[in-house]
Amino acid sequence: MKENMMDLISRIDVKQDAPEKEPERQYYFMDLLKNWMAAEKERLGRDLTFNVQTFGCQMNAKDSEKLAGILETIGYVATDSEAADFVIYNTCTVRENANTRVYGRIGYLGNLKKKNPDMKIALCGCMMQEEHVVAKIKESYRFVDVIFGTHNIFKMAELIYDRLTSKKMVVDIWKETDKIVEELPSERKFEFKAGVNIMYGCNNFCSYCIVPYVRGRERSRNPEDIIKEIEGMVANGVVEIMLLGQNVNSYGKTLENPVTFAQLLQMVEKVEGLRRIRFMTPHPKDFSDDVIEVMKNSEKICSHIHLPVQSGSTNLLKIMNRKYTKEDYLNLVDRIKAAMPHASFTTDIIVGFPGETEEDFEDTLDVVRKVGYEAAYTFLYSKRSGTPAATMENQVPEEVAKERFNRLLKVVQESGSKRAMEDEGKVMEVLVEEKNSQDGTLVTGRLSNNLLVHFKGGEELIGQIVNVKLSECKGFYYIGELV
Ligand code: 5AD
Ligand code: SF4
Q1: Long-range CB contacts (< 8 A, 24+ apart) of 266-273?
Q2: Which numbered ligand comes closest to the C-alpha of 308?
Q3: Which H or E run includes 367?
Q4: Model's pTM, two decimal places?
Q5: Are 94 and 209 in contact (CB under 8 A)?
Q6: Ligand nearest to the CA of 307
Q7: How far apart are CA 300 and CA 383, in angstroms?
Q8: Reduced to 3 states, what is the DSSP secondary structure of residue 430?
Q9: CA–CA distance from 483 to each of 299, 342, 434, 471 (Å)?
Q10: What are the angstrom distances between the C-alpha of 253 and each of 38, 94, 176, 293, 429?
Q11: Of 103, 136, 423, 459, which has the highest C-beta tally within 10 A?
Q12: How far is CA 73 from CA 29, 33, 156, 185, 374, in A?
């Protein structure tokens, strides 16, 4: 992959007009910006810094790596501080409170810009796909330099260039796209693990969810491109990959030569040197037996399945447009457990969806107890305008939802620590991720089931898979010993 990019860069003559074709076009603008950057550095007598702030899900985290890759190619230097020369917020709009927080922080960036008038501020991601958001920023946050959405992040270099030459706010939001632009630089957060997009968008239209409106229709990447990317990563030291998509088990349906998710998993399994495969997020309605079979026979697919249930009530699931019943879900979990007795489950749950009764909520608690989740991401329902649920009658009063939310947390915690206790004393493989932030004599690693283990060890272990005895279970993590 790296070599490919070098080829692209050297082929570009910046005196020519911008090429039409992507990604060549973006390398052209990156080259122009490199020249600008050299002049800026000389003018200021220092490096120019950038800071990427990521809100929301794994897909955004992956997009942010691409943004960082482009900025580093231009010549910016990464910093942890928001007092940087280029700050970009990659936003999320799944729940309302995320939006409110972003507005507050853009205001703060405005103050920083007063101290450094050359500072550039960019906003991108899901929130920017909403018209009312862009309108508000144009009106109340005039100091923002560049705004783009979810479909054109590959275009950031061109948009920065437009901003520099036009000297006014640049806004470029695409309503939809069928384009997948590959082979742009990307700056990975970890050396040894990486996310890989396998598909973009979502066609499910769960009635509470804004994602299909801001991320567009489902589009799958070609399996050859995915495998090539993974092979490149493994050659650079990656041992664990996470296949990413809003609904991974509907992968491949839109390809010219359709491929199933089960088939893709088998292809990924064959990549030599790769040790662990994870995926996120599967939808229970599409979790087929062939995927279970592939998981059962795989040596690399991790025994952790994130399987969002959202609610345990068949009645609510129908109104949520989830297309499975409580029984379907429990049955699926049972089939996975039968094939992989060691499987551990995590989930997403929404509390206080319109019309949720005490009985519906009890069904959710029942599912939590029956599945025995290792952890659950629990959310208070948040009304998203434009979604069918936003205009539903009988919205649940906030106090009722909050009271249920707290009850749910207790049950989730009980279920999580019970599950973790089952493995106390066992020896398991751990991928060492980092030095422990609180105790320098410890390192922290992750089990196949996604739980963390802290144990005595040095930095040289980072990126390695080692055997660790899970000596003491602390509820949601372990204290272990290297064996
Ligand atoms: N309110 C609360 N939670 C939501 N999610 C998606 N939309 C909403 C909403 N409107 C949750 C779902 C999803 C996760 C990523 O966010 O649980 O699985
Ligand atoms: Fe949203 Fe449902 Fe699509 Fe997930 S599957 S992104 S919850 S619409």
Answers
A1: 266/294, 267/223, 267/226, 267/227, 268/226, 268/227, 268/230, 268/241, 268/243, 268/300, 269/294, 269/298, 269/299, 269/300, 269/301, 271/227, 271/230, 271/231, 271/234, 272/234, 273/234, 273/235, 273/239
A2: 1
A3: helix 358-371
A4: 0.92
A5: yes
A6: 1
A7: 39
A8: strand
A9: 21, 21, 18, 11
A10: 46, 25, 19, 20, 35
A11: 423
A12: 11, 9, 12, 7, 40
| Residue 13 pLDDT exceeds 60 | no
The Cα 182–Cα 226 span in angstroms is 10
Over the stretch 307-360, which tens digit does the pLDDT of each residue have? 999 999 999 999 999 999 999 999 999 999 999 998 999 999 999 999 999 999
Band (15; pLDDT cuts 50, 70, 90) = low
Determine the distance separating the centroid of ligand 2 and the alpha carbon of 245, expressed in angstroms. 10
Q: How far is CA 437 from CA 429, 443, 472, 475, in A?
A: 21, 9, 19, 19
CA of 215 to the centre of ligand 1 (A): 14
Diameter of the chain measured on Cα atoms: 69
> Would you say residue 69 has pLDDT above 80?
yes
Nearest CA to ligand 1 atom 9: 382
Residue 443: per-residue pLDDT: 97
Q: Region 51-59: what's the mean pLDDT?
A: 94
Ligand 1 nearest atom to the CA of residue 308, by list position: 18
State the distance from the centre of ligand 2 to the C-alpha of 238, rounded, in angstroms. Answer: 29
Mean pLDDT over 53-80 rounds to 96
Token output for 252: 């491949």
Question: Does the Cβ of 208 fall within 6 Å of ligand 1?
Answer: yes
Whether 37 contacts 46, CB under 8 Å? no
Q: Which is the closest atom of ligand 1 to the Cα of 208?
A: 10
Measured CA to CA, the distance from residue 354 to residue 381 in angstroms comes to: 8
DSSP, residue by residue, 261-326 = HHHHHHHHHTSTT--EEEEE---GGG--HHHHHHHHH-SSB-SEEE---B-S-HHHHHHTT----H
Q: Ligand 2 centre from 212 Cα, in Å? A: 7
Structure tokens at 213: 């409106």
* pLDDT in the model for residue 16: 78
Compute the mean pLDDT over every residue in the chain, rounded to the nearest whole number: 94
Whether residue 177 contacts residue 351, with contact meaning beta carbons closer than 8 Å, is answered with: no
Amino acid at 314: T
Which residues are bridge partners to 428 per DSSP?
468
Cβ–ligand 1 distance for 282 under 6 Å, the answer no
